[in-house]
Amino acid sequence: AQSVTQPDIHITVSEGASLELRCNYSYGATPYLFWYVQSPGQGLQLLLKYFSGDTLVQGIKGFEAEFKRSQSSFNLRKPSVHWSDAAEYFCAMEYGNKLVFGAGTILRVKS
Amino acid sequence: DGGITQSPKYLFRKEGQNVTLSCEQNLNHDAMYWYRQDPGQGLRLIYYSQIVNDFQKGDIAEGYSVSREKKESFPLTVTSAQKNPTAFYLCASSDGGGNTEAFFGQGTRLTVV
Predict the structure, then answer these.
(1) Residue A24 pLDDT > 90, yes or no?
(2) Which of B25, B34, B93, B99 should one mutate to test binding to chain A, selecting the residue with the greatest count of A CBs within 10 A?
(3) Residue A39: is its pLDDT beyond 80?
(4) Could you tell me the CA-to-CA distances from B98 to A64, A80, A83, A94, B66 in Å, in that order?
């Protein structure tokens, strides 16, 4: 069955440190993949998306993600985290005109 | 400003009552979606609509109903049959066709007491 897995429920990083949030998907073909961010009590904002082509995609707020077909992964990265990046991050996959979401990863940033 | 509006932001209802959550978009999007969010479970799809007067059940449709009489509007009714309705509900819209991003409203937090 089609699914998205985010293995880490919580991640804590120091301000200025690098960040990688993991995402794995299960799908028989090349999926459309997304990363969204959510601040508490708010809706979701799109960070970046992958449809085809270059496997390294750039997004807003200095985020990037790399699609690796061999590992069925679409990990989100940022070289230097800011305190304002503290939020919940969701990986999502589109198939059949529906978006399927992972369970989310809560990012905490310590100063 | 173009966007997607959910109202109200907070909603309280007594157990056994039906309640309707509003979702309006002025993005001229064909597709609209309702998701339920519970801590640690991500977003789960309740219903979606690809076109006016048509909608499909998502993964957790039991106890919910929707209508799509206008392109701009996709209200969700939480019925008394929904066993655990307290949650954060998110509405989204997109151009449809799959490879386009979804735009989300700010959500409605429903508490049933």
Answers:
(1) yes
(2) B99
(3) yes
(4) 21, 32, 33, 6, 21
